[in-house]
Amino acid sequence: MNNALTQYTDLYRENRQAIDNGSAAPLNALRPKALEALEAARRLPVKGDEGFEKTSVNDMFSLDFGVNISRVGIPADIASSFRCGVPNLSTLMGIVVNDRFTPTSTLVSNLPAGVSMCSLREAAEKHPQLIAGHYGSAADLSKPGTALNTLLAQDGVFIHISRGTHLEKALQLVSIMAAPTPMASFRRILIVADEDSAISVLKCDHTQVRSAQCLSSEVIEIIARRGARVEFYDIEESNSDTSRYCQVYVRQHEGAEVNICGSTLTNGVTRNEYNIDITGPHTRTRLSGMAIGAGTQHIDNCSDLRHAACHGHSEQTFKYVLDDESTGAFGGSIEVCHGARFVEAFQSNRNIIASAGAKMHTKPQLLIYNDDVKCSHGATTGQLDAKALFYMQTRGIPLAEARRMLMQAFMADVISAIDLEPLRDRLRHMVERRFDGCEAGCRECLSSKQDAN
């Protein structure tokens, strides 16, 4: 078996000075610990290592990808990355090409006081103590994928909202993978919401249409302080040559509310991990996701949610619709720790297999270490309701349209979990177009390309 980890640790040892020079002190400070963790792990996880049908991280990283350690500017033709235009969503937008952040003119002129959105390198220069105190504070270096990202990430995005600030407009990150040769990008996103603040962040991932094979390694840390409200929405519309490994870490303090929704509309191979650590009482957490698979797409979502305090409420809902030869996997864990009384935690995974060649693997689980809780979990996998299809055809609806209508309705409760109304309406339209056969989905940012230039 090819040990993909070796090529990256060797790359770091041979180019450590160049990697550090292209980054910032808080990021550089964690690299030795990351290397130590990787040396202890010896390899990236392969299928079977984690006790479930999770995607092999080793296979995702095994191709001889290039890494842009010299920080060479790679242009992206934004117009060609978005093919299906829909009305513009009113947001404050920044563009990320691989790991390089560029604010749009709208963001620069309209970002209100108390809110920061900039590159990690810039933030480390302006707010070194703030970055040093939060970067890596939620991420778990015992996970080899996180340790590898920490070893090689040179830049990313920093979002901060100060105490008591409520941002009315959503912030949007348009992330584009672009490279003339096979390229791996290691990117970090750090979101810090101070006490009693409120913020919504939309991230949409795309691949340059004419790009070579791409690998996106991304670690996202979300710190929600006491009484903060954070909404984070993630939409992937990449192409079949893209591999994406996204690890989300959430640290949720007393009274904080967090709503996370991930949507995979088009992709190649995707593995999303959600690690939510609820450390304070009286919290509310909602985690939802949906995946639409066709062709040979592979979509893997796994969640680890830990209640370590009393009076927490959490809901998880993940839904898949898989067609053709696509495959899906879901592994979800809820842990209610000793002493975390009066917790309510619910988890649901429901899946539709729309063809004989599609496959789904699912494993929800509960770990409960005290009484006085309300918890449930469950999973169902089946086909479209034959009786409903027959009924709709007797009413003059063609079979293809009836199938599409049922699949759209199946995703309705995931979409309704989005609190940001304009995005909720937009995503409903995007899902409709996806089921209509639009391979690229509905590119969110077409009408903003002039603003980004």
Keywords, separated by commas or semicolons:
453 residues; 15 helices; alpha/beta; 20 strands
| Helical fraction | 25-40%
The tally of domains stands at: 1
What is the CA-CA span between the terminal residues?
A: 45 Å
Determine the number of helices (DSSP H or I, runs of at least 4 residues).
15
Low-confidence stretches: 82-87, 440-453
The Rg value, from CA coordinates, equals 21 Å
Structural category: alpha/beta
Describe this structure in words.
There is one protein chain. With 453 residues, the protein is an alpha/beta fold. It has one domain. The chain has 15 helices and 20 strands. It has helices at 4-14, 16-21, 25-29, 31-41, 57-61, 78-81, 105-110, 120-126, 128-134, 144-152, 386-394, 399-410, 412-416, 421-435, 449-452, and strands at 66-67, 91-97, 100-103, 115-119, 155-161, 170-177, 183-193, 198-207, 214-224, 229-237, 242-252, 257-266, 269-278, 284-293, 298-307, 313-322, 327-336, 344-353, 359-368, 374-382. The strands form two sheets. Strands 1, 4, 5, 7, 9, 11, 13, 15, 17 and 19 form a ten-stranded mixed beta sheet that branches. Strands 3-2-6-8-10-12-14-16-18-20 form a ten-stranded mixed beta sheet. β2 (91-97) and β3 form a beta hairpin. Mean pLDDT is 89; it is low at 82-87 and 440-453.
